[in-house]
Design a protein that fits this description.
This is FkbM family methyltransferase. This protein is globular. The protein has a domain of 70 residues: Vaccinia Virus protein VP39 (Rossmann fold, 3-Layer(aba) Sandwich). The strands form 2 sheets. A 3-stranded parallel β-sheet has the order 3-4-5, with helices on one face. Strands 1-2 form a two-stranded antiparallel ribbon. The relative contact order is 0.19. It is of the alpha/beta class. The chain is built from 4 helices and 5 strands, in the order E-E-H-H-E-H-E-H-E.
Length: 109
């Protein structure tokens, strides 16, 4: 596990993650254009749902966009990335981010 500072704060990543984790550790962001588009649409105080939060690469940017007066609900059903996501949320003091472990959808898979 690695703790690194990125564009939106501290991220906790798996050292074995050679894609998202590597980008977060080396560049400090992942898929930044997606976060930029969301930030243009979101305002402080908004509520946003992120379905499939993985390790929180987008979550931290969404949390910054809605601010402490907003709310981010993020779902990640896989335990390992969800724990890393929750650690990043906690280390950044993001009380307005709720991490959920349920899978969303009508069927498994």
């Amino acid at each position: 596990v690695a703790v690194t500072r990125g564009r939106y704060g501290v991220s906790v990543t798996d050292l074995g993650d050679r894609v998202v984790g590597t980008h977060l550790r080396e560049i400090g962001e992942w898929e930044q254009p997606i976060v930029d588009i969301a930030a243009e649409l979101l305002r402080p105080g908004d509520t946003v749902w992120e379905c499939g939060g993985h390790v929180g690469a987008h979550t931290l940017g969404l949390a910054a966009a809605v601010g402490a007066s907003g709310l981010v609900h993020v779902w990640e059903p896989q335990r390992a990335p969800r724990l890393l996501l929750a650690a990043s949320v906690a280390l950044n003091g993001l009380r307005h981010v709720d991490v959920h472990g349920e899978a969303l959808g009508a069927a498994d898979g």
